[in-house]
Model the fold of this input.
Amino acid sequence: MCHRLGAEMLQAPWLRVSRARTGPGAVRTGSRGSLLILWVCLRFCAASSVRSPWAEYYGTKSQYERLSGVPQHDTDWLAPANCTILQVNALIRHGTRYPTRKNVPRMVEIHQLIREQGDPGSSLVQALAGWHMWYNERMDGNLHPLGISEMVKLAKRLAARFPALFTTQSYREKRFKFLTSSKHRCVNSTKSFIQGLESYLDLRDQAGGQWEVNDGLLRFFDHCQKFINLVENNDTALHQVEIFKKGPKMKRVMSNMAKKLGISPEAITAHMVEATFYLCTYEFILKGIVSPWCDLLDEEDVEVLEYLGDLKQYWKRSYGYKINGLSSYKLFQDIFQYMDQTIEENERNQSISHTVVLRFGHAETLLPVLTLMGYFKDEYPLLANNFEEQKNRKFKSGRISPFAANLILVLYQCNKAQGLEEKYKLQLFLNEKPLPFPHSGNLVADYEEVKNCYQHLIEALKFSNVCDDLSYFHFIFFLFLLLLFIVYH
Done:
C-alpha cells in the first residue's frame, strides 16, 4: 500500500522529480529519486497514523472544527428553567482565509534559500526545492472556500439551536441585524452566513439579508489613537516578542532547521522560521496535506512558535497593555445597548426590534473584548523568559480565537422572578461552548448582575476620552510654555 500511495503522492506539485538523465550522472539522479520516493512513502504512512501535524499549536491560524470541535451535546444550549429566549447577540471572527500579502515574500525567501543552499543529497531538501509555490499576493487574506463552508454551517447550527428566534417571519421583518468589518474576508463571511441561514429557512428572495459595514465598531483598533500611538506604531511595544525571537528557544529552532537543510544557522532568520510554520499550517488547513515543510520542525519547535504567536497577541491585543482591551469599549457598549433596548421594548410589550444581532470581525476584534471582560488572564504576564512556566497558560490564542471563532450572548426573560433584577438572565458561549461568567463562575447569571459588574465599562461618559491620546497636546503645550519663558526672560 505504501508503494502505491508513494506513487500517487509523487504527482503532487511539491514532489515533482526531474526525469532521469543518461550518462555519468544517471545513477546519482536515480539514487536521489529513489531516496525521494522512499521519503514520501515513509512520510505519508507516518502522517496517516496521526490526526494532524500539530494542529493544536496553530494559534490564530487554527482550524475551527478541527481544534474546537462542533459541540454534540445540545443540553449545553438549553434555556434556564422557566425562561424564554429574547435575543441572540454575537461577535464572529471571519472564516478560514488565505495568507495575507505580508507573509508571501517571507515564504518565497525561505523557499529560495533552500533551493540555492540546501543539501542537494537530502530527500527532504529535494522535496522542498521541488515544491510548487502556489501562494501569491493576490490572495491577500481572501476568504477560502473552507471559510465559506464554516460560516454556512455555523448559521445552520445557530438557527437549529434557537428556532424561536431564527424564523422566516423574523427574517422577513428585518429583525436580524448584520454588521461587518469592511475587509473582504469579513464581508464574504457575512454573505456566507446569510446564505446558510436563507438555505436553512428555505428563503430565496434575500428578504432580510442586508448588512452594514461598521469599521468604527469592528475595526476599532484603526480608530483608537491612543492604541495606535502606544502600541501599533510604537517600536518598543513588542519588546518581549523581539527578545524571545533572539533568545535561546528560537535559536534552537533555527539551528534545528539549518541542520535538516544542511545550511548555516546564520542563514536562517526568525521570519523564515515563522514562514516555514505558516507553510506547514496552511498546507494542512487549506489543502489537507501533511506538507514537507512540517518536517523542518519538531513538536518542541512548534510549541516555541506557538508561544511566539501568543506573545504577539498578548502584548498587541490583550493584557500586555491596558489600552488593548479598553480600545474595544464602543463595541462592548454596543453589545449591551442592544440588550438594553430589547429589555426596554419587552417591558413595554412592544415588538422587539432586533431578535438576532450578528457582527463579523477579526481575531483583533474578539481578543480585546474578551480581555476587557477579564477572560483568559494568567496569574503572571507572558514574557520572553517564562516560556516553561507558561506551558499551561490560559491565554492560548488558538483555543480562544481560531478562524470562525464566535462569542455568543443569549438573553432570556424568566417567569416566577422575584423582581426586575431576576427577570432577565444571560448565557455566554465561546466557540459554541458554555463560557462561565468570570465574576461568579456560573453558566447563567442575572442580566442586571452582569451589567453591574461591567457598569464602569458600559457608561459611555466615563470613557469619552479612552482613545484620545493627549501626549502630543501636552508636548506642544510644554513647548509653548518653554517659548514664553525664553521670550520673557
In short: The beta strands are 83-93, 176-180, 212-213, 356-361, 406-414, 424-430, 433-434, 444-446.
